[in-house]
Amino acid sequence: MSGINALGFYQSTIFEQYLRLSPTIARVLSACVFTFQTCCSPIGVLAVDKFGRRKLMMVSALGMGSCMAIVAGASSQSHNVACVGVACAFIFLFSLFFPIGFLGLTFLYASEISPLMARVPITAMSTGCAWIFNFFIAEITPTAFATIGWRYYIVFACTNMFLILPCVYIFFPETNRCSLEGVDQIFRDSKDCLQPVKMAARLSRGLLDEAVQTDQKLSNEMVECCEAACERDDRGRQ
């Protein structure tokens, strides 16, 4: 529902029919968009453990929604060369934001938040739902473009910014640096659907505090060992 399938499956058609580019340029741009998205895919892999799941998904949703809104506005003026250029540029930018938070992270997140005994069926259901929506979007996109034209992009802009982004912020707990047992504890200790995010934040702070205390303890032990070694050296010299 982010809009990647509407753009991906009908990329060359969008460039040729709705942005009024030549067939050759449309195909070249379509190939470039997919190549660019492939090159951007490692960003999410490299950033997921550094910035966490929630931040990547929220940044990705906000970026995709903004890109879709700008593409909608620019596509409404397809007779204007500058607007066509803007639309093409933000289609490329959309292909940057999508792999950051929604290319592979959604499948990872579904398996992380699932209880141990139900991880396999829940992961299977999430993957199945993803492909069902892919099929749904692929089927309705030609009709949507034929009936509402550039306004179709507004649907995805609103979906990203007013549905996906708030849902991630309100309901999706951060699982970065949490063990599978810790994730189970987040949901077990939550009394309603709004508490997992807060519980995950508390757990994360607790883990960080514990890590700091461990580092301080190790530092103190190293200092004590160094002092003891110095004392032994002094005694040996005497």
Describe the protein in words.
The protein is 83% helix and 0% strand. It has helices at residues 4-9, 11-18, 23-51, 53-75, 81-101, 105-112, 119-148, 152-171, 180-189, 196-237. It is elongated and about 90 Å long. The mean pLDDT is 87. By secondary structure, it is an all-alpha fold. It contains 10 helices and no strands. It folds into 2 domains: 4-172, MFS general substrate transporter like domains (Growth Hormone, Chain: A); 174-237.
| N-end to C-end Cα span | 78 Å
Q: How would you state the average pLDDT, rounded?
A: 87
Strand content: under 5%
Let me know the largest β-sheet.
none
CATH topology of the largest domain: Growth Hormone, Chain: A
Low-confidence stretches: none
Calculate Rg over CA atoms.
25 Å
Q: What's the total helix number?
A: 10
Q: Please provide the ordered H/E string of secondary-structure elements.
A: HHHHHHHHHH
Q: Count the domains.
A: 2
Determine and state the CATH class of the largest domain: Mainly Alpha
Instruction: Quickly give the CATH architecture of the largest domain.
Output: Up-down Bundle
| Net shape | elongated
In total, the number of strands is 0
Going by CATH, what is the homologous superfamily of the largest domain? Answer: MFS general substrate transporter like domains
Structural class: mainly alpha
Residues in helices, as a percent range: over 70%
